[in-house]
Amino acid sequence: MQDVFKQLSDFFYCSIIGMVVGLIYDTFFFKKILKRRTRDLIFFISSTLSTVIIILGLYHINYYTIRWYTFLAICSGFWFYKSSISFLYIRILKKVNKILSFNKR
Asked: What keywords is this UniProt entry annotated with (predicted)?
């Protein structure tokens, strides 16, 4: 029974990692109109940061033990974030960007 609770907690924490990866994706790509070089650089930075978050998360959760539910949890966390919280976070980013660009004038 202890193993089932350990797997459920691992699933929960890996789904949180998936949500954080979605948050990183939205943070770096909320502005779609960028120059090609800037877009490539931002893609590289966000991919690197997402990979580091996943590797560190897997290390702290279960010492790099990757099971089938690990990938399922990360994908479901990303899907949950994109379908529920993403639109709110993007609206907040747009308002912050509007405030910061207003202060530059």
From this structure: Membrane, Transmembrane, Transmembrane helix
CA 47 to each of CA 7, 27, 42, 85: distance values in angstroms, whole numbers, following the listed order: 27, 12, 8, 21
Q: Where do runs of H (alpha helix) occur along the chain?
A: 2-28, 36-62, 68-80, 86-104
The residue with tokens 């931002």 is 42
Measured at the CA of 60, the angle between CA 54 and CA 65, to 5 degrees, comes to: 75
pTM value > 0.70 = yes
Q: Where do we find the tokens 């580091």?
A: 52
pLDDT, mean of residues 74-82: 90
First to last CA, the chain: 62
